[in-house]
Structure formats: C-alpha cells, structure tokens
User: Fold this.
Amino acid sequence: MSTLLTHIAVSDGKIKRSSLEVLSRMTQLAESNGHSSEAVIIDTNASNYVDEVQKYGASKVYTISDPIFENHQNTPLLKALSKVMDEANPFVFGFGSTEGTKDILGALAANTDAAVLSDVSEFELIDGGIKATRPVMAAKILSDNEAHGDNILVSVRSGSYDLNESPTEAEVVDIDFSFDEGDLKATLREIIGASGDKIDLSEAETIVAAGRGAKDDEGQELVEELASVLNAALGASRALTEAGVMDPSLQIGQTGKVVSPQLYIAVGISGAIQHVAGMANSKVIVAINKDPDAPIFDIADYGIVGDLYKVLPPFIEELKKIKE
Amino acid sequence: MKFYVCIKQVPDVDAPIQIKDGNLIQDTDRMVLNAYDASAVEEALVLTEEHGGEVEVVLVGPEKAKETIRKALAMGADKATHITTEDEVDYDSAVYANVLATFFEDKEYDIISCGKQSQDTDAGLAGSMLAQHLNLSYATNAVGLSIEDENLVVKRQGDSGQEIIALPAPCLVTCSNDMNEPRIPSLKGIMQSKRKPMETIALSDMNVDESVLSAKTQVTGYKEKPAREPGQKFEGEPDELAEKVAKLLDEEENVI
Ligand SMILES: Cc1cc2nc3c(=O)[nH]c(=O)nc-3n(C[C@H](O)[C@H](O)[C@H](O)COP(=O)(O)OP(=O)(O)OC[C@H]3O[C@@H](n4cnc5c(N)ncnc54)[C@H](O)[C@@H]3O)c2cc1C
Assistant:
C-alpha cells in the first residue's frame, strides 16, 4: 500500500477549492488501487481545517502550524513540505496548481529528488509512476506524459476534477515544526491588493470578464454592475490590464490566471488564443461582441452579437428579475 | 551588478502545429527566443543601464540555438555562453536545471534570472529548481523588478495579491512577460552582436553527473484537444437578445 498525499492550500482563511478537487481525485485513486489517501495542511493554525478535509476522504491528516505561514513565503513552506515528505513518504504528492504551488514545486522536487509534472489536466496511476495529460503550446494541444520514481509531485489545474465527498474519520498527526525568522533571507515587505472581500478568480463559480471593447468608464461600470448582479468575480483580458484599466491580478489567460467557473461571460473580448488558454475550461461561456466574426464565438455556448453598451443594460435588468 | 539570464530556444507557438501519429510536426524554421526569457533579458538590460553592470546570457541547446543567443546579444546583452547539446534530446526541466547548476558552480554573479516558464511546455519548474540547487533565495513570477541598495526588489503575482519581496544578492528571479515589452534589436545591435564574445562549451565536456541527464519524466505523445463546439449565436434587437440569453442561462443551464 502506498500513500497518495494531497497538499491543502489555505489562503485568506479558506481552503482553496482546487486542493479539495485534487484530494477528491486522490481519494478515488486510493480506493480503486488499494492505497491510502492522506492530506497535509500547513497554516498558522492548521487544525482549523481538519474537519473540512476529512469530508473528502483523507484517512490521515498531517498538520503543521506556525505563525510564519501567515503569508506565502517560499523558504518556510519548502522546509515544511520537505519535512512532511520525509514523514509520509508519499508515492504521489498532489497539489492544486495555485500561484503558491508554482512558486515552490520545482524547488521541492529538486530538494527531495522527486519527479515532477506541473499543471496537468488529468492524471492516473501506472506501474511505478503516473501518467498525465498536460495542455502545452499555449494550451493549443495536449501532451501525454509519464513520471517514474518513488516520490512523484503533480500539480493539477483547477477545475480538472469535481469535488466528491466521502467522509472519513481521519487520524490527525501534528508535525513538530519550527522556523527561525533569521533564516529568511528574503523579506516579504508588503502584499498589495490582498483580496479581503474580493472573490478569488481561480476559485470563482461565475466570472464576468472585460476586454478592450469595454475599456472606458461607462463600459467598466456596466461590467461591474453585471458582476455584482451575478455575485461574480471580475476578470480581464490582457488588453485591459496592460492599459492599466484593470488590476494585473485580474488577467485571465496564458500569462494570467487559469479559471474554470460554471459561467464565464466575456464582454468585448476578441478571444485571442492566449486569453482562451485561461478560460476554455469554463462550463458555460457567454460572449458579447459586436464583431460577428470574433474568434470568441467559436468557443462560446451562447454568443450575443451586439454593442455591449446597448446589450448590457437590458441583460442586467433581465438577470435582476431572475435573481429576485 | 552581474546578471546572468538563462534563455531557451523554443518553437513559435503561433506557427501552425500538426500532430501525426502522436508526434508533433512543427515548422522548425520558426524557432524563437522564449517570450518569458525575452522579458527577463529586457529587464536585466534596463536594470544594468540604470545601475551599471553586465548582462551575460546562457543557453543549453543544440547548435541551431545560436540564432537565439544572437538575438539576445543583439538586444544588448554583453556576452553569452552556449552549452551545446545533441540536436534531439528529451530533457525535462530537472535536467536543464542540473546542467545550469553545474555551470554556475564556479561563477560569480549577483542575479540569475530566467523566464517564469517555457512557452512550449509551460512547465514553470526550472527556475526554482536551479535556485534550490544553488541554495539561492528566489522569487518566481515577477511582474516588476527594481534594485534598492544591495537588494533586488521583486513584485510578484501571488494568490492573494502582489507580493513585494526584497532579495539580497546573490539571488534568482523568474520573470513574467507582463512587466515590459522586450526591445526589438536595432540594425546596429544586430551588427554588434556578431562581435560580442560567445563561449561554447560542449555539455559532454562539462562535469555533469551522468545520472542527472536521464529525465525522470517523459513526453510519450501529443494529441489534439477536444474542440469546444461553437454554440448558438444570436443577432437582433438588444432587448430581445438579452431576454433570450438570460432565460437560457437560467432555465437550460442552471447557472444563474
Ligand atoms: C506571450 C503572450 C501572452 C499573452 N497572454 C495573455 C493573457 O494571459 N491573457 C490575455 O487576455 N491576453 C494575453 N495576450 C494578449 C492577447 O494576444 C490579446 O492581445 C488580448 O487577449 C486581446 O484582448 P481583448 O480581447 O480585450 O482585445 P481585442 O483583441 O482588441 O478585442 C476587443 C474586442 O472587443 C470588441 N468590441 C469593441 N467594441 C465593442 C462594443 N462596443 N461592444 C461589443 N464588443 C466590442 C471587438 O469586436 C473585439 O473583438 C498574450 C499575448 C502574448 C504575445
């Protein structure tokens, strides 16, 4: 029996949904292959999250708690992850592909001599390793990959697997951890735009994204109103983040965030391949664009050909009516 | 400030791609400097123009990749090292990181930078692997860089906002392409690049441990992405369109 371990990422006091998606998948793989599904939570107070993690089938939960984990910092996180690998000796160690994961995955692999596949959209177990699918070449095509070894790290794109509850009574193992702040060579000075009440894009159920077509104040107000009616997160194409109209953290695409909401509404976005790379996994895509030949219509489930300034006001009214 | 920028030659992702029997058929005449590396080169040039110093690029790749080194030199890098490999190798990020780690063992530098990922594989692993091997403090996914006193100040995109991190030299940073528009080499730059020093080292002459040259991960094939089918497209009066689509989202899709 081998261990399939999942890292549970916590950000702003909440477990990242993508971690639970990975845990759901790991539990399913563990059940069908006779392995054990385990999880690790690293946070200022990791035990807060054990109950929720148990719901997704982890039979053992490692907790590492220390004030140093208040904010993401790669040095202490690496140390904690390396320690839990020593302790749990996972055959596969899974991560949601968050920005925090991207920051440490390579370093962790180098530190523990593990094989690693990043940003996969599917994975399964094979003899002595895993097999995984990764979108490559700006997500234009898929590559099949294999990784072999005793310890394999894998990070999984959000939205790749559904949440699947299978409650267990987990054994909780608190791992002793201490970190001397003096060992931190890097200094985290500040976090700008920490999302307090903002909805996190990579976790959002509904996203309203604005493109160059909505770049003036009136367009922005309409897009914001639409988002607020739907209780949606705001996103943007690179055209708007580069122009400084929208915050860079809201960019969706190859160089921005990869999102997988239930509903994605693209307003005044042409559908350039680099943008599509970040949102093609959305369940339902609605596009509003005045150009009937805009490439975004090739992937939209519902296309509205029209001027957003004329379409959005009645659209917002209709949605308000439905919401009431 | 001594900057080393690790660069890579990659296929142009905008060139037509075909898959035949699971293999990737690509126009190999369209190889380019990885876009993220180009941003790392640009940023190193800007910082050394401001604070003084030197920019050296280093590339691990086949003979053909010399074109890409020339491009970086034409942009303004001062010198280059080319670690030459066979034409066809199936190295993964870990192998590149190990080769580069061996290269840097006896080098002096303030800052090593590279792209945050390679635009063909989008793996995003080599940078932090290299930092780990060299025991350097590092930051990934930089969207802004500046130098203050002896620190490299990195603005990086994190999960809950932009993190401002000060790294004392020597350190490593990986760059997003959101922070600049890499310069296009001038004719003068292109002429000068031919006279700039380029050292060539055969990988086989380097003291790289044989065991790290065999990759732990392999690409076993390529396949088409299942296409998203275009759905329904509506044209007409805005009021009617709005009502129709809102209803569909509510009643058919259940997503409102
Ligand atoms: C290496 C690289 C990485 C990149 N990464 C990203 C990325 O991560 N994310 C990203 O988004 N882009 C990325 N890009 C940029 C991308 O190629 C496009 O330039 C960008 O997505 C275009 O944004 P847009 O659709 O908002 O603007 P445009 O392409 O200018 O499209 C605007 C659209 O709005 C429509 N429109 C205009 N007015 C109206 C109106 N009144 N009503 C309705 N419709 C209207 C137009 O018909 C048009 O289709 C990247 C590019 C490169 C080279």
Summary: The radius of gyration of chain B is 22 Å. Residues 35-51 of chain B form the longest helix (17 residues). Chain B touches chain A through 82 residues (CB under 8 Å). Residues A 211-213, 237-239, 251-256, 268-270, 272, 274-275, 278, 288-291, 294, 307-309; B 35, 177 surround flavin-adenine dinucleotide (CB under 6 Å).
